[in-house]
């Protein structure tokens, strides 16, 4: 199974930016999604990019977060701008068996990274 490794998390002040990366151990013809989970909350789909480069972001981050993909590097990115304290969470990338779909439901993905923590202070 393809391994996914996230990086780029950290602590930032409100209004700041971070770029998360997710490197796959090999090329994967999959939709790649970003999820986040805060303590005591359900895992929330944030953004997804499919195998042909189409993207979708959740309403809660629209206009602030952008997903992108570098196929040559087997890497997907999540650019996060104008961060807010409510964006604080563990962020995970995931791949799934439906390469052309733009799904933001956790049950649609079957391969997950270990996560990277994002903390936004006010």
Short characterization:
The chain has no helices and 11 strands. The chain is an all-beta fold and 122 residues long. Strand 5 and strand 6 form a beta hairpin.
Secondary-structure blueprint:
Blueprint lengths: L3 E4 L2 E4 L4 E7 L7 E6 L6 E6 L5 E3 L7 E6 L4 E6 L8 E7 L15 E2 L3 E6 L1
Parallel strand pairs: 2-11
Antiparallel strand pairs: 1-3, 3-8, 4-5, 4-9, 5-6, 7-8, 9-10, 9-11
What composes the largest sheet? 7 strands, mixed
Our Rg estimate from Cα atoms comes to 13 Å
Query: What's the pLDDT, averaged over the residues?
Result: 96
Shape: globular
Number of strands: 11
Order of helices and strands: EEEEEEEEEEE
* Percent of residues in helices: under 10%
List the total number of helices: 0
Structural class: mainly beta
In percent terms, what proportion of residues is strand? over 45%
Cα-to-Cα separation, first versus last residue: 39 Å
Low-confidence parts: none
Please give a handful of descriptors for the protein shown:
single chain, 122 residues, mainly beta, 7-stranded mixed β-sheet, globular
Q: Could you please describe the fold and organization of this structure?
A:
This protein starts with a strand and ends with a strand. It has strands spanning 4-7, 10-13, 18-24, 32-37, 44-49, 55-57, 65-70, 75-80, 89-95, 111-112, 116-121. The mean pLDDT is 96. The protein is built from no helices and eleven strands. Strands 2, 4, 5, 6, 9, 10 and 11 form a seven-stranded mixed sheet that branches. It has a four-stranded antiparallel sheet with strand order 1-3-8-7, with no helix packed on it. The protein is an all-beta fold and 122 residues long. A hairpin with a 5-residue loop joins strand 5 (44-49) and strand 6 (55-57).
